[in-house]
Design goal:
translocation; mainly alpha; protein transport; 78 residues; membrane; transport; elongated
Length: 78
């Protein structure tokens, strides 16, 4: 179970980084400093933006569950 949670954590972490980078910058800040001010072809549709938001929230929830699971396993392992 611990190995599964570790693998799930790594996969969801990488996926979250990718999904956050796909989001369109909504107002200057650090994202525009690194080229986020350029509009990508994926962020042209509001349907795509809503689906990207849903996938990001779902992935973040799975990531949080994996973190909590690993923490509980560490706490109750002895």
């Amino acid at each position: 179970m611990r190995m599964f949670l570790d693998i799930l954590l790594v996969i969801t972490s990488l996926l979250l980084v990718l999904l956050v980078l796909l989001h369109r910058a909504k107002g200057g800040g650090l994202s525009s400093l690194f080229g986020g001010g350029v509009q990508s072809s994926l962020s042209g549709s509001t349907v795509v933006e809503k689906n990207l938001d849903r996938i990001t929230v779902f992935t973040g929830t799975i990531w949080l569950i994996a973190i909590l699971g690993i923490g509980l396993q560490i706490k109750f392992s002895h």
